[in-house]
Amino acid sequence: MACQLCGSEKNLQDYTVTPKDETIEICATCASSIEDPSSDEKHWNCLHDSMWSQDPAVQVVVYRLLSKLGAQDQLDMMYLEDDVLEWAKAGLEAEDAPVVRDTNGNILSEGDSVTIIKDLPVKGAGFTAKQGTTVKNIKMVPNDPTHIQGKVNGTTIYLKTEFLKKL
Fold first, then answer.
1. Is pTM beyond 0.70 here?
2. Region label for 11, one of left (φ > 0), alpha (ψ between -120 and 50) or beta (otherwise)
Protein backbone atom coordinates (compact mmCIF):
# COMPACT_ATOMS: atom_id res chain seq x y z
CA MET A 1 0.00 0.00 0.00
CA ALA A 2 1.16 3.56 -0.69
CA CYS A 3 0.07 7.08 0.23
CA GLN A 4 -2.81 7.94 -2.06
CA LEU A 5 -1.56 11.52 -2.38
CA CYS A 6 2.23 11.31 -2.81
CA GLY A 7 2.94 7.60 -3.32
CA SER A 8 5.21 7.19 -0.28
CA GLU A 9 5.16 3.74 1.32
CA LYS A 10 6.42 4.82 4.76
CA ASN A 11 4.42 5.60 7.93
CA LEU A 12 0.95 5.18 6.44
CA GLN A 13 -2.18 6.12 8.34
CA ASP A 14 -5.89 6.54 7.68
CA TYR A 15 -7.21 10.03 7.00
CA THR A 16 -10.96 10.65 7.29
CA VAL A 17 -12.49 12.79 4.55
CA THR A 18 -15.41 14.64 6.11
CA PRO A 19 -18.36 15.06 6.03
CA LYS A 20 -18.90 11.60 4.45
CA ASP A 21 -16.37 9.95 6.78
CA GLU A 22 -14.63 7.94 4.05
CA THR A 23 -10.95 7.22 4.60
CA ILE A 24 -7.84 7.30 2.44
CA GLU A 25 -4.29 6.14 3.19
CA ILE A 26 -1.78 8.96 3.58
CA CYS A 27 1.81 9.12 4.81
CA ALA A 28 3.03 10.99 7.88
CA THR A 29 4.49 13.77 5.71
CA CYS A 30 1.13 14.46 4.07
CA ALA A 31 -0.67 14.17 7.42
CA SER A 32 1.63 16.71 9.07
CA SER A 33 0.78 19.49 6.61
CA ILE A 34 -2.64 18.55 5.24
CA GLU A 35 -4.43 21.12 7.43
CA ASP A 36 -2.02 23.90 6.42
CA PRO A 37 -0.56 22.90 3.05
CA SER A 38 1.24 26.23 2.63
CA SER A 39 3.68 25.12 5.35
CA ASP A 40 5.25 22.60 2.91
CA GLU A 41 4.23 23.69 -0.60
CA LYS A 42 7.00 21.77 -2.39
CA HIS A 43 5.73 18.47 -0.99
CA TRP A 44 2.36 19.08 -2.64
CA ASN A 45 3.81 18.95 -6.17
CA CYS A 46 2.64 15.33 -5.94
CA LEU A 47 -0.93 16.56 -6.41
CA HIS A 48 -0.26 16.92 -10.15
CA ASP A 49 -0.42 13.11 -10.34
CA SER A 50 -2.93 12.27 -7.59
CA MET A 51 -5.50 14.73 -9.00
CA TRP A 52 -6.25 12.09 -11.66
CA SER A 53 -7.17 9.41 -9.12
CA GLN A 54 -10.43 7.55 -9.72
CA ASP A 55 -11.17 7.44 -5.96
CA PRO A 56 -13.70 10.19 -5.09
CA ALA A 57 -12.29 10.62 -1.56
CA VAL A 58 -8.81 11.27 -3.00
CA GLN A 59 -10.29 13.71 -5.53
CA VAL A 60 -11.99 15.59 -2.68
CA VAL A 61 -8.76 15.90 -0.67
CA VAL A 62 -6.77 17.00 -3.74
CA TYR A 63 -9.44 19.61 -4.59
CA ARG A 64 -9.35 21.00 -1.05
CA LEU A 65 -5.54 21.11 -0.96
CA LEU A 66 -5.31 22.81 -4.35
CA SER A 67 -7.94 25.33 -3.22
CA LYS A 68 -5.98 26.13 -0.05
CA LEU A 69 -2.80 26.49 -2.10
CA GLY A 70 -4.51 28.81 -4.59
CA ALA A 71 -3.58 26.53 -7.51
CA GLN A 72 -6.40 27.64 -9.79
CA ASP A 73 -4.73 26.26 -12.95
CA GLN A 74 -4.77 22.71 -11.54
CA LEU A 75 -8.30 23.15 -10.22
CA ASP A 76 -9.43 24.17 -13.69
CA MET A 77 -7.95 20.95 -15.12
CA MET A 78 -9.74 18.70 -12.61
CA TYR A 79 -13.04 17.15 -13.59
CA LEU A 80 -15.23 16.17 -10.66
CA GLU A 81 -18.70 14.69 -10.75
CA ASP A 82 -21.29 17.08 -9.30
CA ASP A 83 -21.73 15.09 -6.07
CA VAL A 84 -17.95 14.86 -5.52
CA LEU A 85 -17.52 18.60 -6.13
CA GLU A 86 -20.34 19.32 -3.65
CA TRP A 87 -18.61 17.06 -1.09
CA ALA A 88 -15.28 18.85 -1.63
CA LYS A 89 -16.83 22.31 -1.28
CA ALA A 90 -18.84 21.29 1.81
CA GLY A 91 -15.61 20.38 3.59
CA LEU A 92 -13.97 23.65 2.62
CA GLU A 93 -16.92 25.67 3.94
CA ALA A 94 -16.86 23.77 7.21
CA GLU A 95 -13.15 24.50 7.62
CA ASP A 96 -13.70 28.18 6.90
CA ALA A 97 -16.49 28.61 9.45
CA PRO A 98 -15.28 30.59 12.48
CA VAL A 99 -15.21 28.83 15.83
CA VAL A 100 -17.54 30.49 18.34
CA ARG A 101 -16.54 30.17 22.01
CA ASP A 102 -18.15 31.21 25.29
CA THR A 103 -16.37 33.09 28.09
CA ASN A 104 -14.76 29.85 29.33
CA GLY A 105 -13.51 28.81 25.89
CA ASN A 106 -16.18 26.15 25.29
CA ILE A 107 -17.22 25.81 21.65
CA LEU A 108 -20.77 26.99 20.97
CA SER A 109 -22.91 25.42 18.27
CA GLU A 110 -26.23 26.24 16.66
CA GLY A 111 -29.04 25.15 19.00
CA ASP A 112 -27.01 25.20 22.24
CA SER A 113 -28.27 26.79 25.45
CA VAL A 114 -26.26 29.45 27.27
CA THR A 115 -26.50 31.48 30.48
CA ILE A 116 -25.86 35.23 30.65
CA ILE A 117 -23.09 35.92 33.21
CA LYS A 118 -23.61 39.69 33.59
CA ASP A 119 -26.56 42.10 33.48
CA LEU A 120 -26.66 43.47 29.92
CA PRO A 121 -28.70 46.52 28.90
CA VAL A 122 -30.40 45.79 25.58
CA LYS A 123 -30.19 48.83 23.32
CA GLY A 124 -33.48 49.78 21.69
CA ALA A 125 -35.53 47.19 23.56
CA GLY A 126 -35.91 49.00 26.87
CA PHE A 127 -34.94 46.15 29.18
CA THR A 128 -31.90 44.57 30.75
CA ALA A 129 -30.99 40.93 30.12
CA LYS A 130 -30.35 39.76 33.68
CA GLN A 131 -27.45 37.65 34.90
CA GLY A 132 -28.44 33.98 35.11
CA THR A 133 -30.97 34.18 32.26
CA THR A 134 -30.93 31.06 30.09
CA VAL A 135 -30.97 31.59 26.33
CA LYS A 136 -32.06 28.41 24.53
CA ASN A 137 -31.64 27.37 20.91
CA ILE A 138 -29.02 29.98 20.00
CA LYS A 139 -28.19 30.82 16.39
CA MET A 140 -24.77 31.67 14.99
CA VAL A 141 -24.11 35.05 13.37
CA PRO A 142 -22.49 34.40 9.96
CA ASN A 143 -18.77 35.29 9.87
CA ASP A 144 -18.80 36.77 13.41
CA PRO A 145 -17.43 34.52 16.15
CA THR A 146 -17.96 37.22 18.82
CA HIS A 147 -21.78 37.29 18.71
CA ILE A 148 -24.72 34.87 18.82
CA GLN A 149 -28.41 35.46 18.30
CA GLY A 150 -31.03 34.36 20.83
CA LYS A 151 -34.36 35.20 22.43
CA VAL A 152 -34.52 36.98 25.78
CA ASN A 153 -37.91 38.09 27.17
CA GLY A 154 -39.48 37.09 23.85
CA THR A 155 -37.23 39.47 21.89
CA THR A 156 -34.56 38.27 19.47
CA ILE A 157 -31.28 39.99 20.31
CA TYR A 158 -27.57 39.70 19.56
CA LEU A 159 -25.34 38.82 22.49
CA LYS A 160 -21.58 39.03 22.84
CA THR A 161 -20.10 35.60 23.52
CA GLU A 162 -17.76 37.02 26.16
CA PHE A 163 -20.83 37.42 28.45
CA LEU A 164 -22.16 33.88 27.93
CA LYS A 165 -21.53 30.48 29.51
CA LYS A 166 -22.52 27.22 27.80
CA LEU A 167 -24.90 25.00 29.76
1. no
2. left
